[in-house]
Amino acid sequence: MSVALLSVAGVALDALLGEPKRNHPLVAFGRFAERIEQRLNAAGRGWRSHGVTAWFIAVIPLTLIATLLSWLPFIGWLVEVLALYCALGLRSLGEHVEPVAEALRSDNLDEARRRVGYLVSRQTAELDSTEVARAATESVLENGSDAVFAAIFWFVVLGAPGVVLYRLSNTLDAMWGYRNERFERFGWAAAKIDDLLNYIPARLVALTYALLGNTRLALRCWRTQAPKWDSPNAGPVMAAGAGALGVELGGPAIYHGELHDRATLGDGVPADADSIDRGWQLVQRGVWLWLLILCLGTEFYA
Predict the structure, then answer these.
(1) pLDDT tens column, 111-138
(2) What is the rounded CA–CA span in Å between residue 89 and residue 103?
C-alpha cells in the first residue's frame, strides 16, 4: 500500500474510534518509563548520561519491534496503520477543547477552568474567561503540531518505525523534559531529542497554519515573535497559528506556582470561545491539506 493510503487509513481510524479507552499502548509505555526513571534517576540524582541510557532503553527496543512487525508479509500494512492510529490524537484533541469553548459560551467559568486544566500544565484556578480561552487556543495549536502533524510527518518519512520512535520520544519529553531539580539533568536528552524530531514538522505546521489563515499576518508573527518564545518549535507553531487566526495569545502565565513572563503572540482580538473553535478547525483543515498533498504526490509520482 502507498504511504498516502496508509496515512488516510490511520487518520480515518482515529476519527472513527478515537483513542483507545482502555489499554492504550502509550499508557502502558508511560508506566514502563516511570519504572526506568525510578531506577536511573532515584531522588533526582541521575545525570545526563543516565537520561541518555534511559531514553535508549525505553525507545529503541520498541522501535525495532515495530520495524520487524511492519516487515511481516500480508499483515505488515496493518501494523503500519495501527502504529499511526495509536500515535495520533486528533479526535482526542477535539474532545478535550470543545467542552472548554462550550463552557465559556454558557458563562460557566468554573467548568471552563476545570476542562482547560486537562490540557495545560499552568495553574487554571484563577484564570478569567479570556485567559482560559487563550490557554485552550494555545493548546490546540501546539498539540495539533505534536500529537497530529508530527506523527503524520514521521510516518510518511519512516513508516511505523518512524512514528513509534517519534511518539515515544515525545511522550518521554512530556514526562521527563522539565527544567526543575528532579529532571534538569536526567531529562535533558529526552527534551533535546524531542526538539530535534519536531524541528522540521513544527515549521511545516507553522507554514500550514499560515497558508490556511491570515497568511501575511501569520508569517510576520512567525518571523518577529517566534524567536522570543522559549521553545524553538512551539514558538513558530503558536506565533504563526495566532497570526493565522488574528488573535492575541501568549503573555504571562503561572506554572507550578511560578510566574512566567511569556512573550505575546499573534495580533488581533482577545481570545474567546470562537478562537478555540477556529483553532480546532485550523488543525482539521491542515490535516485534510496534508492528506490531499500526499494523495496527489502519490498519484503524480506513481
Answers:
(1) 999 999 999 988 888 899 999 999 999 9
(2) 22
Partner residues linked to 88 by β-bridges: none
Query: Which whole number is the average pLDDT over 237-265?
Result: 91
Q: What pLDDT does residue 257 have?
A: 74
Q: What are phi and psi of 24, to 5 degrees?
A: -65, 130
- Residue showing cell 485550523: 282
CA–CA separation, 21 vs 204, rounded Å? Answer: 31
Taking phi over 0 as left and psi of -120 to 50 as alpha, with beta for the rest, 255 belongs to: beta
Closest residue by Cα to residue 33 from 10, 7, 55, 63: 55
Instruction: Centre a 10 Å sphere on the Cβ of residue 188 and count the other Cβ atoms it contains.
Output: 20
What is the rounded CA–CA span in Å between residue 60 and residue 197? 15
Cell of 75: 499483515
Residues in Cβ contact with 101 at an 8 Å cutoff, skipping those fewer than 6 apart: 133, 136, 273, 274, 276, 277
Coil/strand/helix, residue 1: coil
- Kind plus residue range of the DSSP H or E element containing 223: helix 215-225
Distances (CA, A) of 240 to 194, 214, 217: 20, 9, 8
